[in-house]
Structure formats: structure tokens, C-alpha cells
Amino acid sequence: MKTLTIVLIIMGFRTDLFCQDFPDDFCLCEKRNIASAVLNEERLLFIYLPTGYYEDKTKTYPVHYVADAPATSNLYFDLLRFNALMNEVPQGIVVGLSSDGRNENFHFKKNAVKYFEFIKDEVIPFVGQNYRTNDYSVFAGHSAGGDFVFYAFLQNPRIFNAYIAGSPGPIEQVIDLVRAPKTDLQTGDYRFLYSSVGSYEDTDTLLFRALKKLLEEKAGKQHEYHFLINPENKYAQRIKMMISNQ
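User: That's the sequence. What structure does it adopt?
Assistant: C-alpha cells below.
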């Protein structure tokens, strides 16, 4: 479970970063283009490798797939690397999925079906063939990316071992997916799902709690669900006051 502890810190940065243009040297990672037959286009992957990856060629690593690269994946990898140095988590490979087209790709009723197919059928095999991975993987996302993490989990929880969904919403459409007859959470394998929202966000916290209960009822004790509602802090209160006074 140590693999997951750092990801619970990273989901609070600004969503408007996701669609920005970044300079070529913005992140220290390997940038790989993958020709997607599913999406009928080339997609950019940001591959972050742990310290000593090329020195010790016998070691394999868990893989963290992170939506909204490079903004999210840069921060994610820095926190993963720091906590690995502190021996709090194992080192890992981070695969950042480009934020291009996020509004279409993460939307349940738009391109989510194809984008999920692209990740499971093209990205994961590409990473497995080109990098030394083990059998543990995490999928993380924030905001619309958090919605898509839920979507991936509900489509097929077998693809990843752990799922991290920060500030998802609207919760109603996630609940609709859970209730859909085709949703099958009986994988036969343990899975970990973490999600958090802020009490100051637009998310309906009652529905957020209801979602957790519904998941537990549908999957029983087979999976582990951690849902956290973060209390409003003084910084957030000041921001709201500034906005309301404009």
C-alpha cells in the first residue's frame, strides 16, 4: 500500500494548467510519440524514469499512469521521487498522458470509450515492451481526469491495481455508471480506489458519500474504497472572499 501514499497529496493544483502550451524543456523526461490506430493520430507520452534506471538493468518498477501531462505528471513524479528517497514508497515509472483533447477524451458521452481503449490496448503494451515494468500499476487523474479514472475503473477494474480520482464531478454521472447493468466490479482480485473532494468545491458531498456506499454495495468487500472530504482551509476562504469582492 506504500505505493499509493504519495498520490493522495497531489490533486489540488490549478485545472487551468492542463491546457497550456509548455516549452520543450519544461519536464525532464523521455518524450515518446505513439501512433494510435484507435484514435487515428499520434499521441505524446511523457515517460519519467526513476534514479538509476539505466544503471541497474535487472530491476523492474511499478507504473503510474497519470492524466493531464505534463502539468500533473511533473508534480506527481517529483513527489514520487522525493518519497522514494525517504523510503516511504517504492521507486516507479510515471507515464504522463498528454492533456491534448482532454475535454473530449475524458467525457463519458464523447470520446471516453476510444480513449480508454487507447490506454489499455496501446499505451500499456507500449510501455511494457519498451520499459522494465512489474505487474503493479496505478491510474491517477484530477478534475475531469478524476472523472475518467472513475470511468476506467467502472469499465474494467482489472486493468490497474489502484485508482486515484481527485476532485471528480459531476458525481451524478459516475453514480449512473455504477448503476448501469453492464458495470461488473466482481474482478476476483483486490483493487484500491481513492477519491477526494474539497468541502468548498461544487461537488455535492452527500452524493459523494452515496457513491462510496453504492460501490461498496455493488462490489462487497472485494475492493478497498477511501473517500475523503477535505475541510475548507483559511487559504481557500481568503480566495473565495477575494473573488466575491471583485
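The CA atoms of residues 83 and 236 lie 26 Å apart.
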